[in-house]
Amino acid sequence: MVLLLGVLLVLFWPRLQESPEAPEPPVSGSVSETPVVAPGTPAGQEDAVGKDPETERLLQSWLARQAAAEAEDVSSWGGATYRAAVAAAAECERLAGDRQWVGARKQCRAATARLDALLKDKPQLLTAALERGTRALEGGDAETADNAFRRVLSLDPENAVARDGLQRARQLPEVLKLTAAARRQETAGSLREARDAYTAALALDARFVPAREGLSRVEAALVEEQFQQLVSRALKALAEDRFAAAGKALARAERLKPHDATVTDLRRQLTQARLGARLQQLRREAAAHEEKEEWEAALKTCDRALQLDPAAAFANACRERTGRRVELDRQLAQTLAVPDRLFEEGPLAAARRLLDRASRITPAGPRLETQLAGLKKLIHEAEAEVEVLFTSDGKTEVVIYHVGRLGRFQRQRLVLRTGDYTVVGSRDGYRDVRRVLKVRPGSGPIHFTLRCEEPI
Where is this region: Disordered (predicted)? Predict the structure, then answer.
């Protein structure tokens, strides 16, 4: 290009030196692609010395514009339009040499107008070439894309989009080959192989839409396949009461498809199954405690079941039943722990009622039978009558609280019910005597002596 500029300057430098006028503005409008040849002009009609200043100015303007255009490498992208402009300029030179000034001026203006229009259209040419190349890439036309991006680079050698597009165009045949193979694998149901082929295509061109769409489709299908496998695994584990395994499978399925209705329903089933299994376990535990007559433990177990499900029928019935037995067991234990209380009429009557209520329970169970036997024995002992032989000095006044006055005697026989009695002796001039008589069955007649022997 530098050489060309040098040649042009050598040819036209004399004329440039002779024409000091400013360049004429470019002529707009549609211009023909072929040079216009004007009829000859008689010599001497334009300039008596053989030169035409206007023609010289037009040639100078053309040369300046051409130099600027060549600096933009117009010869590589101007095509037929630029060739027509150059041809018109050459015709201008020829006509000027023949002193045909009118025709020469017309050809120079035509050359300048074509060049100006070409330069003005350069951004549109670049944009159109980019769009053409992009469409070709999307359509899988490597040759058209290559030509289009080369055209862009001739307009703008540093255009990053075109450089990238050209690289993509060079790789497009291999990308198309891999994408086609991936589609065949996808159609055949070989999803993993299809995924690998799509991935390989995208490794060459990450923006190739068919490969991206294909990979998205295949990955979605693989997710669905894995999801269905996990759902089946969860259902099988649920049916076999393997709740931990079912929970793990559902957790993995939920990560694949969050908020999926199938997973939500299976989680509800799993929760219900776990609850049912836990309630059945507590029911068995409560029954085992009841069988062993461990009423406190049974009641606590029923309460745990009610905390899980307040509407659980077995737990409500269990709590009512075991609650009564806990209270009965407590009363029996307290009565048996303090047998001497039955020597009083009130506690004895309560013991009889307790025995009557406890005897109605069937089956009794070993613990209750033992408690009943013990209570019956205590009641029998508390109701037993024992012969007591009293001895005194005939001078002491003897009184038995809650029984009566015995008076003065030396010997007296009474039959008393089992219990503790307070016996008081009194005599004038002597200190009173107070003793407790413990009447217990099974020891034969009881001998009891009471005298006031300590003078006051």
Answer: 20-52
Query: Over the chain, what is the mean pLDDT?
Result: 86
The CATH superfamily assigned to 384-449 is Immunoglobulins (2.60.40.10)
- Segment 429-453, tens digit of pLDDT: 999 999 999 988 876 799 999 999 9
pLDDT tens digits, residue range 155-182? 888 889 999 999 999 999 999 999 999 9
What single-letter DSSP state applies at residue 360? T
- The residues near 238 (Cβ < 8 Å, ≥ 6 apart) are 246, 266, 269, 270, 273
With the CA atoms of 47, 49, 51 and 52 taken in that order, what torsion angle do they form, in degrees rounded to the nearest 10? Answer: -20
Global pTM?
0.52
3-state DSSP assignment of residue 446:
strand
Whether 126-226 shares its CATH topology with 384-449 is answered no
Query: Taking Cα atoms as reference points, which of 436, 442, 342 lies closest to residue 383?
Result: 342
Q: According to the CATH classification, is domain 126-226 in 1.25.40?
A: yes
